[in-house]
Amino acid sequence: MVGSEETRLVVLRGNSASGKSSVAAGLRERFGRGLALVGQDNLRRIVLRERDRPGAANIGLIELTARYALDAGYHVVVEGMLYADHYGDMLARLRADHRGPTHGYYLDVPLEETLARHATKPIHDDVGEAQLRDWYRPRDLLTGGLETVIPAESALHATVDRILLDTGLAHLPALEH
Known about the structure:
Helix content is 43%, strand content 16%. It has 177 residues and is of the alpha/beta class. Helix 1 packs across helix 7 and helix 3 packs parallel to helix 4 (84-97).
């Protein structure tokens, strides 16, 4: 078992440029201290400099990091593309082992919108349209209906508000970590 009955685990998934990192940053900004962000891109691309593939080391590192933060009393947001076939088993273990509430969200943004959003990102020169098209998986939902689908039309502030309310984080005090 991991975390406590008071800790919250939030999983944010979706395609590249769907808004996951912006939503995670908005949650942290609104909540304050005590909310750990476990970002797939940071652990996979920056820490390990690894390609996304089944069985890759970042999968275990994401799980270990989330477990550690939950056990230390942090609420945790795990965010990334987190393909269902690569990360689904790990996310299922986290969900099953977490003592507190766990909430999953899938940001459902059509390919054309992800391409338009990506064009505004600092990495748009490093990652081209062909790569984005290759990465894109329409509605790559986890099995079991455990995710709330957030449509592309949901504004950033509305998505952050919804998640804060759904998870109960809106009513919890920031922690003194």
